Amino acid sequence: MIRFAFAILTGCLFLFARPGFTIDVSSYLRDGVELSQSGNYRAALVQFNQAIEFEPSNALAYQYRGVAKAKYGDFEGSVIDYSKSIEIDPNNSATYGSRGIAKARIGDLAGAILDFDVAIQLDPDDGNAYFNRGMAMEMTKDLQRACLDWNHALELGNQSSLPFKRKYC
After folding, report:
1. Which one in 14, 29, 73, 134 has a CA-CA gap of 20 to 30 Å to 106?
2. Rg for the chain, CA atoms, rounded
3. What are the pLDDT digits (tens) for 10-55?
4. C-alpha distances in angstroms, 168 versus 90, 139, 142, 145?
């Protein structure tokens, strides 16, 4: 009975609150990012879950939650969140790149390469996308294409490619 009354009072608070009272989803996102950067992924997930609860069409909330899940080791969950983010905003190359990394981590190399292809198509100057596609190509034993990607990544300023280029190309 007490829970029921509390639920009704809470509902009334939202229905009859002053017009200036709004839920600030950006504060949940900001807090989640800070917690994630400090390594507290579990608490970050709580913040991103709150943001999604209040604004289910916020692509950034799903993207950030996907990052936190990946950092926490839940790559399958991160792929689901990145996919939802892409469904809402299909033009964010970074989300395709992040989903590509998560797919590679769960062994879906073909899916990862396709995501890196889209990331590159959306942002041809993204050296990270070329580097990551090169890594996926190396994992599929396609060293010729991997070397092409690492060379292009280096041209775009991605220095992470240099040791791989030296080793394999």
Report:
1. 29
2. 20
3. 333 333 333 333 578 999 999 999 999 999 999 999 999 999 999 9
4. 34, 12, 11, 11
